[in-house]
Amino acid sequence: MVRKKSIKKKPTATAKRKPLAKRARAYTRARAKAYPKRREHLVFALGSLPKQGVPEIKVRYNRARKTFLGLVKKSTDAADFIRKTYTRGSIELQEAFVVLYCNHRNEILGYYRHSVGSISAALIDQRIILGTALKSASTSIVLAHNHPSGNLKPSQADIEITKKIKKAADLLDIKVLDHIIVTKKEYFSFTDAGLI
Q1: Backbone angles phi and psi of 163, in degrees to 5
Q2: Taking the model in full, what pTM does it have?
Q3: Cα–Cα dist 146/187, whole Å
Q4: How many independent structural domains does the chain possess?
Q5: Distances (CA, A) of 179 to 97, 98, 159, 191
Q6: What helix, strand, coil percent values describe the chain, rounded to 5?
Q7: What are the tens digits of pLDDT across the range 100-145?
Q8: Which of 53, 71, 129, 185 shows the greatest Cβ crowding within 10 Å of its Cβ?
Q9: Coil, strand or helix at 69
């Protein structure tokens, strides 16, 4: 009778992994016992947030094309630029609040038509105005709106909102250069009148 030699098989890659997987599970269990979960004390929370699904806020800033839009040296520079942002016939139709965003050299980075209102009023939200300034890395802003009536005198509401925005902007080191009221041919500057 011929005996067959028993051939030892080399252990496969999966066979080698099994002991490692067992050791990993044992290590995880031992670690869980060594460091028991403690109750967390929340100092301030709006609610219990799950670990997954918490929204992440991402901020991006990309000024791809650097186009020179103008420089705000005096109130006429701002008024001329702002007047161009209104479409033909709209400056005498309804109020619109526009904000110019500038860099540290007072170069205009862009403008934002904040709101379009009625014949005599427009809603203004300082959070959106300043949020846009932060996102565009602006260091100064020029506030502006039109008076369809043609009356250049600022209302008490105009003066109050300017003070409110300026106070909030000061906290963020954003300078309010001016607040311009424009009509078709004329303008009123808060800075020139000493109201800022």
Answers
A1: -65, -40
A2: 0.65
A3: 9
A4: 1
A5: 10, 10, 9, 7
A6: 30, 20, 50
A7: 999 999 999 888 888 887 877 888 899 999 999 998 889 999 999 9
A8: 129
A9: coil
